Amino acid sequence: MAEPPAPLSGQDVGSFAYLTIKDRIPQILTKVIDTLHRHKNEFFEKHGEEGMEAEKKAISLLSRLRNELQTDKPIVPLVEKFADTDVWNQYLDYQQSLVKEGDGRPSWFHSPWLFVECYMYRRIHEAIIQSPPIDDFDVFKESKDQNFFESQQSIIALCTHLQQLVRTADDLEENQLKNELSKLLQISLWGNRCDLSISGGESSSQKSDLLNSLEDLKPFILVNDLDQLWSLLSKYKKAGGDPSVLRVDIVLDNSGFELVTDLVLADFLLSSKLATEIHFHGKAIPWFVSDTTIHDFNWLIEQMKSSNHRWMSKCGADWQKYINTGRWAYHDHMFWTLPHAYCAMPQVAPDLHAELQKAHLILFKGDLNYRKLTGDRRWEFTVPFHQALSGFHPAPLCSIRTLKAEVQVGLQPGQAEQLSAAEPRWLTSGQYGVLQFHALL
After folding, report:
1. How many structural domains are present in the chain?
2. DSSP-derived pairing of the beta strands 397-402 and 361-365
3. Best exposed site among 113, 125, 144, 219 by fewest CB in 10 Å?
4. Using alpha carbons only, what angle is made at residue 211 by residues 206 and 214, rounded to the nearest 5 degrees?
5. Is 218 exposed, middle or buried (0-12, 13-18, 19+ CB in 10 A)?
6. How far apart are the first and last CA of the chain?
């Protein structure tokens, strides 16, 4: 088999990877420092002088990190002992072994982009855990909560739609069921545009009702494998109790509005008997600004339950019930915040790989998951999706993502060239999306 292409890297001046490392990541770090600074009175009230000292220490560590990045210093090992520290430092040694003789250690602009971007968020976490008693502070929580509150009208519209659907789910004919699934998958797809790491932490809430925009957005879906997805789920549904457990796993991306779209989809899968249980996978630590942690997941369901809007609170109550009865389960695993491509999962996290193998379908949400599925490499646009997965296939899987990185596979010949001519930023603007499916034949 031919060698896979090189990873995307910040050494390609002018590329999206280069601009991310040069501009977007320092901007995010500045925002994190500012957030800590704004909370210093709260730290003082809670912890006294110790809280003030911790805030100063965290800011000092983050300022050093920003300087290392902006001056393209060598990437240094993690020092604070944490569950994943050794795995990270082994990976860093591996990256160093790839550096040509005489070049010394890998640096920010001369390493794979996926690695340095993940490393930056891991270093933010290190700065916080090195600064007790504020070592459990989520520097991104404010932005995530704001995204949820600013998207209220869209959330209400979605909950209202879901409650009407749930009441009639048993009476839907096959075609109607497929049509409703298609709508909710598209809403989950376009919900992925609400991404705070791509906007540098600026607000990216969903103000309009997505349900009314789906027809207009259809031409922007570059790969739409809905038919294959439907045939898999409907085959299981028709088998009627065989298998008796029909498990769908959703590897989550952003909290806030996008998480609501994922939970609405999950609710519909249960209500329509297209699944009997849903397993969600989130991040174990704050990650890529707006990624979902267990705290975000529980917080959002609490907000929904206590809403004064009838259908929103009904959704929250239903979702809490699914959790209490075990029909919904939330998992986090260290692997999701490592820099490895997913094809390394069987070696690096065999327990997680074995867990995913229990699924009948895995939905991978968002851009970072796509980058890790494909190894974040310079693939030709027409390379088949399964080839870019490099052997990763715990179960039938589907990537649901809006494009925010210069990696995309599985396109038709000529499709990328047409897009480039019409819209030079098509790969990174978040305006285009894919529902890209792969099952072993």
Report:
1. 2
2. parallel
3. 219
4. 100
5. exposed
6. 20
